[in-house]
Design a protein that fits this description.
about 20% helix; 4 helices; single chain; alpha+beta
């Protein structure tokens, strides 16, 4: 299982990454896709939706179960990755390449509460 060091993680198995333009990407971790199994449907938050850190904002469904997407930080959704909607299985193949939504963080300092790769690995290995 992979835990790239350049990403930040949540207790709810989401990853996020700041972009050069100040926006953030969010997706599900390798651990999450492994636990879900074959992803068949993604219901992301709608563009323009206000999101709150740690709160459900969307859904990922697999052949086994469904799981809420939780916002990594407070903010507003500005873009959805359409390729994930068309081919949800991409989340199984490359969960860190295929982000689900892009957002503007209302308080980027909240990122200090997120987990490093090492801390996230310790969480899922516990």
């Amino acid at each position: 299982m992979k835990f790239p060091d350049h990403l930040l993680y949540t207790n709810e198995h989401m990853w996020t990454q700041a972009q050069p333009d100040g926006t953030w990407l969010a997706g599900i971790s390798d651990y999450a896709q492994d636990m879900l199994g074959d992803v068949v449907f993604v219901d992301p938050p709608k563009v323009g939706t206000a999101i709150s850190a740690g709160k459900p904002c969307g859904l990922v469904e697999s052949v086994k179960t469904g799981s809420d997407l939780h916002a990594p930080l407070d903010g507003k959704v500005i873009e959805i990755n359409e390729s994930v909607l068309q081919s949800p299985e991409n989340l199984n193949d490359k969960p860190y390449t295929h982000w689900i939504f892009k957002f503007e963080a209302s308080d980027a300092t909240q990122a200090s509460t997120l987990l490093s790769a090492a801390a996230y690995k310790a969480l899922v290995d516990a």
